[in-house]
């Protein structure tokens, strides 16, 4: 299992749970091509979702192939294991995008040719593309020519992309608008368009003019996470995610510096990214370096250990279309303190399983963290149990059921609508 959300395990392999696994025996299996601009071993939420989806579908008996840029200079088609499931992966010849700390991309004209080759050899029933940029655009054009059913999922915000581009600040608004127009063209080819949350769906509809975008949770297997109800012996604040600018980890460090010294709060930052050195310097400047641990990438077992020993999970990001890391923290029974931005209010119900704070406001974040860190054992247990209750709506089995219906053209209900779960198709 290579990890994510935004999540932050290093690429390792694990076993997909069999109980998440079986499709109804009376329905035909589906041939699915999942096309992604980022896939394991990349470490982000979109890659994590595509990997989990593919492994879950294979476990149910469907035939799944992956099309994605190669994570190194080696490219070609071969069988890989992901979450314990074998699948053919077509690794496209890729180039490193050096403004970003890991991103690699495939050239558009090569993608079109590779799309033709893969589609004509695999003959999928459906192509599920994960973004409108290079790979999604190219494969959707070729699939549409062949009348192959298209499903598109958006994990992408152009506003985040330009931060890693070389585009001058004065031209960035134009680039963002052009990116949304491109999204309109590519997603417009799809029979169904999804995003992880209702707010993300509304965001996509607003900026592209599309209608009928479905909110379908990325889903997690909560059985992989074990809540810890033992009395806490320390105050430990956990963040899991890419260590990049849009995550606003600097706000978390500033908030940590505002906490009462009597709390003796320890801050654990799990993940890697281009801002690590800057944040280490900020921790030094704030005088809290001895209380902040930057772990970098970790294994799945180490990640679960981090969730287990934490008192509270903090997510200061303002750009989450869902946040798999927050979902995993909830499945681990953690109270959440998160920015009141984008999709996070779908997961964090203020004063129920945690608290929302004003985005970018370090003092407000510090105040909300203090509420959790000073809560009575009874109150802390109540917050934890509510996280476990709310995460049930995001079970990966529901997500798999829903995408199976979309692939077949069957009617479905959104799994997540304004923070409440809908009934999943059976």
Automatic annotation (TrEMBL):
An annotated GO BP: carbohydrate derivative biosynthetic process
Keywords: Glycosyltransferase, Transferase
SUPFAM superfamilies xrefs: UDP-Glycosyltransferase/glycogen phosphorylase
Limits of the Glycosyltransferase subfamily 4-like N-terminal domain: 43-223
InterPro entries given in the database record: Glyco_trans_1, Glyco_trans_4-like_N, Glycosyltransferase_grp1
Source domain of life: Bacteria
Gene Ontology MF terms: glycosyltransferase activity
Stretches with biased composition (Low complexity): 1-13
Region (Disordered) residue spans: 1-24
Glycosyl transferase family domain residues: 228-378
PANTHER family on file: SULFOQUINOVOSYL TRANSFERASE SQD2 (PTHR45947:SF3)
Protein name: D-inositol 3-phosphate glycosyltransferase
């Amino acid at each position: 299992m290579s990890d994510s959300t935004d999540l932050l395990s290093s690429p390792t392999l694990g076993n997909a749970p069999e109980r998440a696994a079986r499709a109804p025996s009376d329905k035909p299996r589906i041939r699915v091509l999942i096309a992604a601009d980022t896939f394991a071993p990349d470490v982000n939420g979109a890659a994590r979702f595509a990997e989990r989806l593919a492994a879950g579908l294979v476990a149910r008996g469907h035939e799944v192939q992956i099309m994605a840029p190669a994570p190194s200079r080696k490219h070609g088609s071969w069988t890989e294991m992901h979450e314990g499931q074998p699948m053919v992966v077509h690794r496209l010849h890729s180039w490193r995008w050096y403004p970003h700390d890991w991103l690699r991309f495939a050239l558009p004209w090569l993608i079109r040719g590779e799309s033709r080759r893969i589609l004509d050899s695999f003959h999928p029933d459906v192509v599920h593309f994960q973004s409108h940029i290079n790979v999604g655009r190219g494969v959707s054009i070729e699939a549409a020519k062949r009348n192959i059913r298209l499903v598109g999922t958006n994990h992408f915000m152009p506003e985040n992309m330009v931060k890693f581009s070389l585009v001058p600040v004065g031209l960035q608004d134009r680039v963002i608008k052009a990116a949304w127009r491109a999204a309109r063209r590519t997603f417009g080819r799809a029979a169904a368009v999804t995003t992880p949350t209702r707010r993300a769906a509304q965001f996509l509809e607003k900026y592209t003019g599309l209608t009928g975008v479905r909110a379908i949770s990325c889903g997690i297997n909560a059985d992989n996470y074990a809540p810890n109800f033992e009395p806490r012996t320390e105050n430990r604040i956990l963040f899991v995610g890419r260590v990049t600018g849009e995550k606003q980890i600097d706000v978390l460090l500033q908030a940590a510096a505002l906490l009462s010294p009597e709390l003796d709060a320890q801050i654990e930052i799990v993940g890697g990214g281009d801002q690590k050195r800057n944040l280490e310097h900020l921790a030094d400047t704030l005088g809290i370096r001895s209380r902040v641990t930057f772990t970098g990438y970790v294994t799945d077992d180490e990640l679960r250990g981090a969730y287990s020993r934490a008192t509270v999970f903090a997510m200061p990001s303002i750009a989450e279309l869902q946040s798999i890391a927050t979902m995993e923290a909830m499945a681990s029974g953690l109270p959440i303190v998160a920015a009141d931005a984008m999709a996070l209010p779908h997961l964090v119900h203020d004063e129920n399983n945690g608290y929302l704070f004003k985005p970018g406001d370090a003092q407000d974040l510090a105040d909300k963290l203090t509420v959790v860190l000073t809560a009575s054992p009874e109150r802390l247990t109540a917050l934890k149990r509510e996280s476990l209750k709310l995460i049930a709506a995001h079970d990966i089995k529901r997500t798999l059921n829903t995408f199976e219906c979309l692939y077949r053209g069957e009617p479905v209900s959104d799994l997540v609508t304004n923070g409440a779960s809908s009934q999943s198709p059976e």
